[in-house]
Amino acid sequence: MRPQQKNNFWFVLGREELISAAELRAVLNSRDLKPKNGLLKSESDIEPAMFIKKVGGVIKIGKEIASGISEKNIIEIISNELKNVDGKINFGISVYGLREKFARMKSAKEIGIKIKKMMKELGYSIRYVENKDATLSSVTVEKNGLVKRGREFMLEEDGDKISIAVTMAVQPFEEFSARDFGRPGRDNLSGMLPPKLAMMMINLSQTKTNEKILDPFCGSGTILSEAMLMGYKNLIGSDSAEKAVEDTINNIKWIAEKFNQDNPDIDVFKCQVELLDEKISADSIDAIVTEPFLGKPLKGREVKEELIKQANELKSFYLETLKIFKKILKPGGRVVIVIPRFKFNNEWVTISIRDEAMKLGLKPDILIEDKQFLLYSRPDQRVGREIWKFIKPL
Q1: Are both 47 and 15 inside the same structural domain?
Q2: Concatenated DSSP letters for 310-346?
Q3: Does pTM surpass 0.90?
Q4: Is 1 helix (H, G, I), strand (E, B) or coil?
Q5: 119 and 201 share a domain?
Q6: For the segment 232-265, what is each residue's pLDDT rounded down to a tens digit?
């Protein structure tokens, strides 16, 4: 069998750009890739429609069709590509990081209108999908059929030239929404890990699908459910709360039925994390991917001293937890874990855990650039999530 031809793909990164880039570098197994203009580019033989369902931080995937071209060639290249569309043509244009001069003189709307006019004069039935922003959202691309029945063109600066890609796949936002808000077992009081972030954490662990993943704070089962959908077969979950165990089991069954998965054989049981080494053999787990207890829900009226006290209490808990993790991890095993930070006015109260984890024998990994953790947070959130990855030495 001939090897599949490689193409230069553009990966449009999500809101948390650095986490998205770190995830993608882990999946593609390349630490040399660097994000630019909200994109990460890589030569690969992936199948975009399948690949985008296995990553949480990629919004769109495009295939490059031209590079190093001048501004005057853009219309010609796009028009020629549109002639390959059968029936009525729908198309849109997204602009990534182009120079201010180019964006001012040759906006996406101006280019789109010129192309529409020219194609109509040639007898084509064509519709240009306008957008107020520089880029079309994945929702707009999907709802207007720009992948299946048309084209979205992505333009990016390439020195003093321009590169163009055609969108091949967009993030399955409706599936994510269904998995997030439709599942029967939910814990809105404690808050739940978003499915996209769960996928990113699993990918950051760089675990093979035949290896064993444990989530010892399984909550409502998000990490285990997402791992199941990603093709992992050897999964274990535990939690100290009976309701969490029940929610996890129910959610896994629901998602397996809804998304046509084989009947999952996932071991889920109730257990305090400090007793986990009595239930699980030493040196037996390939990866632990988890979001532990993040502290009591904040109301925004807490004084700084309260947040510092909570941070110190959680630090002790996390360090005891990491001791257990080190026992049950295989040599070379990985921990991808959420460590919270708490917002007080415009500053963060953080939990310093790096040095103590190293003393326990867990080495923090560099996720991207020189960063040993990456922050997942929205401006209006009182609790931020630091994503850490630790490795047990061989």
Answers
A1: yes
A2: HHHHHHHHHHHHHHHHHHHEEEEEEEEEEEEEEEETT
A3: yes
A4: coil
A5: no
A6: 999 999 999 999 999 999 999 999 988 888 867 7
